[in-house]
Amino acid sequence: MIVDTADLLVTPQVAAGRYEAGTTAVLLRILRPGDLAVDLGANQGFHTLTMGVTVGPAGVVHAFEPHPRTFAYLVENVTSVGLPHVVTVHQAAAADREGTAAFRALEGQAAGSHLDIFEDDWTAELPGDLVDVRTVDVAGFLRSLPRRPRLVKVDVEGAELLLLEAMMPVLDPKVTSIVIEIIPPVIEQAGGIGRFLELIRGAGYRIWSVNGEGFDELDDELLRAIDFADVLLAVAPPC
Length: 239
Known about the structure:
four-stranded mixed β-sheet; 9 helices; globular
């Protein structure tokens, strides 16, 4: 994998072999050759590459990344690994509508970059630029696919509620699992952890921890106590 040496969040963990091992394990357990997967917030492409290699030549992966610098690394990685026939990359932010939006593109910490409509105390003082990025109506995109994806990965820095509101009417929990990064304090700022839980439960999903050593179901109290985590939304954990 080709990494951005200016990145201070993802690159050091990738270089040390410590980058989101639990999430990687979940992707490998859920996906099968020929599957369709969607990566919303692909960053430099670490998980996108895992998806692409796992679904193989008969599968399809769609990867979305709005940060201009990071998107260039995503494209280079997909190409260098020989996956352009499997992975389609989209320089866009997943949202609830087609158009453009202001995006806070952070310097050196691209993984924390986010649509400017979502306040984030952690990023407020970090250097970066406001840039206009293309937005894609994620519900419309999912409806346009030939079949429901086996897995959707969501890493969207504050836009979780926005995307869940859009996606849940389109997805079937019996078919599609969701791996989502959650930061409850950020979700609270964006609309409330209560609404987040309502969307998940109402759609028929259950919440499972992602730790690489098995799956523990999280009740609402445990979820609210989390500061930062990737979790799996599914009817049941993968075998």
